[in-house]
Amino acid sequence: MAARKPVSLLKGKDQIGGTWPEEPSRFTDSHVDEFLLWCVKKNSSDITIQTDRPAYNEIYGTLYPSTFRPVDAGDMNVFLTKIYGPEATARLASGDDLDISYEIRPDRYTRIRFRVNITAILSRGRDSAQITMRVLPSEPPTMDDLNIEKDIVDSWNPRQGMVIVTGPTGSGKSTLLSAGIRKLMEQPRGCGKVVCYESPIEYVYDAIKSPRSLLSQTEIPRHLPDFARGVRNALRRKPEIILVGEARDRETISASIEAAQTGHTVYTTTHTTGVAATIQRMVSTFEPNERSERAYALMETVRLIVTQALVEKEGGGRLGVREWMKFPDEVREKLLDMDYREWPAEVGRMIPFYGQTMKESASQFFDQGLIDRRIYLMLSSSTGGEG
């Protein structure tokens, strides 16, 4: 019978992922950042820390244990307190899941950032937690990196009005917005004063050289309680550009419209799929007795709507497929002369002339062999636009 290998030889045996060589017998506050830095150096895209299981790194789409022993309740409490704060356990017990950002500064010139979700779970009959940490790039991508269509790029910087990026959760809306803000900052004359309200802050712009731009980022609810309060705050700060991470309720949509009406350029996102559905959804947030007035105010300000889906790409990776429509003066004037309840159907007819439908975009990628037939059919039926 072969002799059993000692634990010291088993630790780190998986050479692709490997476990943390400096793993302590008990995690303390000082170990947390050291462990996370080691995960980043291993090219981990996501780090998952769950009670009663080893921590895991996701490397090139595969999970690898990153600690040799399971994370126990004491270790988890250390992680929760370090990453969120002492009130984390109470927040989880009240039924909240926690979305935040977390940052490590190993030296004065380096920032390593994570998008964090903390969710309560049941493990071995006890209330426990899972922490999911997405490693964020050190700087936002460019629009070229994301292969954004020229038509969208050319329409991205209206003098005033609203640009809306839409899509389901996880469709890359925040990434597209960050690439758009980077584009504005990298213009020869910069973009003036920009105020951003995000939940959480995903990308930072420290590495972008833009002497004629001044950008500030406020995290909701860490710095201000909600997005509507953020827009009202922005109007007192005289910015040229306002970024609102999500326009999901009546107060935020109304405040964003008013900001666009007063000469600002407003960039925001919604959880809708399709240009026509976005208009309909935003109007429907208002009470019936104010819906008509708010609908026409929205149409006066909207300049561009982009809806995006992230899908599997043939050969691996993911691909952004987009529907979009520009709203130049002649389009807005025509729609403003109609009853707002007729807009969804009319916008659906206009998309091929002032943008591109999701069906057409999917068809182009399918013809190029970049997506398979199943995804093509799914995208072709996902919006109301005619293609």
Describe the model.
By secondary structure, the protein is an alpha/beta fold. The chain has 2 domains: 12-136, Beta-Lactamase, CATH 3.30.450.90; 150-380, Rossmann fold. It is 35% helix and 26% strand. The chain is built from 14 helices and 14 strands. The termini are far apart. Residues 1-14 have low confidence and may be disordered.
CATH superfamily of the largest domain: P-loop containing nucleotide triphosphate hydrolases
Number of domains: 2
Ranges where pLDDT stays below 50 over 5 or more residues in a row are 1-14
- Describe the strand arrangement of the main beta sheet, using strand numbers: 9-8-10-11-7-12-13-14
Helix-strand sequence: HHEEEHHEEEHEHEEHEHEHHEEHHEHH
Number of helices: 14
Strand composition percent: 25-35%
What is the architecture of the largest domain at the second tier of CATH? 3-Layer(aba) Sandwich
Tell me the CATH topology of the largest domain.
Answer: Rossmann fold
Q: What is the arithmetic mean of pLDDT?
A: 89
CATH domain class of the largest domain: Alpha Beta
Can you give me a brief rundown of this structure?
The chain has 387 residues and is α/β, with parallel strands linked by helices. The chain has helices at 7-10, 29-41, 73-83, 88-93, 150-154, 173-185, 227-234, 250-261, 275-284, 288-301, 329-336, 343-354, 358-367, 373-380, and strands spanning 46-50, 56-59, 62-65, 98-107, 110-123, 126-136, 161-166, 192-198, 213-219, 241-244, 265-270, 302-312, 318-326, 355-356.
